[in-house]
Amino acid sequence: MPTSTRLASDRYPVTVIIGLEVHAQLKTQTKLFCGCATQFGMPANTQVCPVCLGMPGALPVINREAIELSVRTGLALNCSIPPLTKWDRKQYFYPDLPKGYQISQFDLPICADGYLDITDPADPDSTRHIGIVRAHLEEDAGKSMHDESAGVSDTKIDLNRCGTPLLEIVSQPDLRSAAEAKEYLSELKLLLTHLAVSDCEMQEGSLRADANVNLHLDVDGKKVATPIVEVKNLNSFRNVQRAIDYEVERQLVAWEDSGETINDAPKRTFGWDDASERTFPQREKEESADYRYFPDPDLLPVRLPRDMIDEIRSSLGELPAVTRTRLQNQYGLKFYDADVIVNQGPAMIDYFETAASHSGDPKKTSSWIMQEVMRTIKERDVEIQSFPVPPNRLGELVHKIVDGKLDNARARDVFEYLLDHDENVDTALAALGIEAVGEDDLLELCRELLAANPQVVEDVQGGKQQAVGALIGKARAKNPNANPKAVRQTLLDLIAQA
Predict the structure, then answer these.
(1) Is pLDDT at 4 greater than 60 in this prediction?
(2) Pairwise CA distance, residues 267 & 35, whole Å
(3) What average pLDDT score do residues 380-407 get?
(4) Dihedral over Cα of 329, 330, 336, 338: its sign
(5) Of 53 and 462, which is predicted with more confidence?
(6) Mind listing the pLDDT tens digit for each residue in 99-111?
């Protein structure tokens, strides 16, 4: 466990205690208990029916795909999957929850007791083991839209989201800094998108996070804990970091002012004001008894056959953390390079490995992908699956660079040509008039340059080898196909022989 850190007050060692509750909408075509579509961005209240509107007599029917995606996620998070899970009614009133209760899971969640390993932000060579308490399946609520622009404070309700399958992933309070919280969320998002269980579009509300924060202070050799605060509905990783950092300072100041501890005050719910960059109190946090959980009488418990779980487990494939390590070990990539490629998803991983197998130089291949390929993807707004330069062709282009037949500048010309022409590398070279410069031609070119620039020869002989750089541009002007590295070395060899 990380050592205690000192914050606003240097009088007390302070350990930050953070647990995250992440709500991920599952990537199903229909809602959890009815056949309504889950497509984002449709006109308000057009994807609803008697079931998700909570009409009397409407009965829910379980979405099998949501069950399978939940099990898939739980297995990837190293959770145990029970043979039986059930549904419970969580009683509370919100205007965007028409039934007046939420169908959720209480004592028999679909996934429990797992973990997620993350890179330690304080030491990239180390990992942090973050426990997962549970991951339970529930229906999402609708969306309240507040309009205060006209000074009337109107609120409108859109129930399209109501009933969308939501997997709530609850961590142990094992995180010790805002940076660790961000790293955990990043790794979790990567895992969920890799598994194709959620699109994790935070701007669309399909991934939301609540942060539970308090402090443990060492006061005269005794541990003092501040009251726990849950900061709700944080919709970006940046806001998660800022909210935690602010809440840590606020709690320390509050404790120094009042001396209030976890034994003196109940858990409270706070919101985050992005404009003022501060948390603010909303209400005291309800306990489980306040929700009056009881088994949903309209839904039978669900049995999860062992063969179904084993089949899902066998379909997981290589998970991102394993792939990241393998790319470093197998191809000699740096952690950063491997991490960038893995974060682009399985299709990019396949693209890299295919290109690397044709280039013979994985490191240079990863460099080209991170610079040229990803830049083009962003500029043209395309997916790697439909990228106009297939991986084997990129690998052939990089191989030309490795063999010294192309320099990077000319290779970029070829790459730009291939983006708009479905041709192989050799055809592109011919079309652009790019050809290898023979050894005799290169020698003649370099002798001409040295004869016309005696001062460069004198400078190099005087120990200023960098002076030869002035001739490389002139060489390219005379022959655009001249490789700068070959020109430089030939010039230096000729001067040394003079």
Answers:
(1) no
(2) 38
(3) 93
(4) negative
(5) 53
(6) 889 999 999 999 9
Per-residue pLDDT at 235: 86
pLDDT of res. 312: 97
- Cα separation, 343 vs 349, in Å, equals 9
| 199 CB burial (10 A radius; 0-12, 13-18, 19+) | middle
Through-space distance between the first and last CA atoms of the chain, rounded to whole angstroms? 65
